[in-house]
């Protein structure tokens, strides 16, 4: 039954709201179409936000990890992506960059908090807080946003050529809150990994 359920997920590419505890999205090969789209529960403009996710890969190139955007083709309101050992965080047109060490063969828990009034960004990797930065204070993230995992950077206007590869690896435990900074709660109130509405595209499966 588990195998049949997994095959159905791969074929139809989407599911209703579902408990994803102990599951991860497995991006199993490079593809310019691969992505997972989550539907956040955003009912009014975000004035604070926190997002956490866990990532596992041994191939770090130019990887979009998480972004919020109005639809599949618009420019992201918020974007977290990685190029080699640097993490980039953008809010609309503004950007900050964090340099980390190159690590493979272990999961990384990444959390980003952003405060509307001050623009202060908090960035954690595996519980370690990096120096705080300021990013686009006063910007509003509107409630029609979708959350996208693993899509090619070219889709956000950051790629240099059509067919740029997507993230290869696993992403799990994606949670999002409408508050900042992060208070180490387990599950979000905007995206809750126990109750997620999602769609998969391309070379991605839900692995239980």
TrEMBL record:
Gene Ontology molecular function terms on file: metal ion binding
State where the protein is found: Secreted
- Disulphide bond pairs: 52-111
Q: Where is the signal peptide?
A: 1-16
State its cofactor: Ca(2+)
- Keywords tagged on the record: Calcium, Disulfide bond, Metal-binding, Secreted, Signal
Q: What Pfam family is a match for this entry?
A: Pentaxin
* SMART domains per UniProt: PTX
Which SUPFAM superfamilies did the record assign?
Concanavalin A-like lectins/glucanases
Q: Which family does it belong to?
A: Belongs to the pentraxin family.
Name of the protein described by the UniProt record? Pentraxin family member
Origin organism of this chain? Engystomops pustulosus
Traced from the root, the source organism's taxonomic lineage reads:
Eukaryota, Metazoa, Chordata, Craniata, Vertebrata
């Amino acid at each position: 039954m588990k195998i049949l359920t997994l095959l159905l997920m791969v074929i139809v590419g989407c599911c209703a709201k579902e408990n994803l505890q102990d599951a991860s999205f497995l991006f199993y090969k490079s593809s310019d179409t691969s992505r997972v789209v989550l539907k956040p529960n955003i009912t009014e403009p975000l004035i604070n936000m926190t997002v956490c996710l866990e990532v596992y890969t041994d191939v770090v190139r130019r990887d979009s990890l998480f972004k919020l955007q109005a639809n599949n083709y618009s420019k992201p309101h918020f974007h977290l992506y990685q190029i080699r050992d640097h993490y980039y965080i953008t809010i609309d047109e503004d950007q900050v960059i964090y340099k980390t060490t190159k690590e493979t063969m272990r999961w990384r828990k990444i959390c980003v908090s952003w405060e509307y009034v001050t623009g202060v960004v908090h960035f954690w990797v595996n519980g370690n807080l990096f120096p705080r930065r300021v990013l686009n204070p006063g910007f509003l993230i509107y409630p029609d946003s979708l959350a996208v995992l693993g899509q090619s950077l070219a889709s956000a206007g950051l790629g240099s050529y059509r067919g740029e590869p997507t993230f290869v690896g696993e992403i799990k435990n994606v949670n999002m809150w409408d508050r900042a900074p992060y208070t180490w709660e387990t599950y979000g109130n905007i995206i809750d990994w126990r109750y997620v509405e999602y769609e998969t595209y391309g070379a991605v499966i839900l692995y239980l």
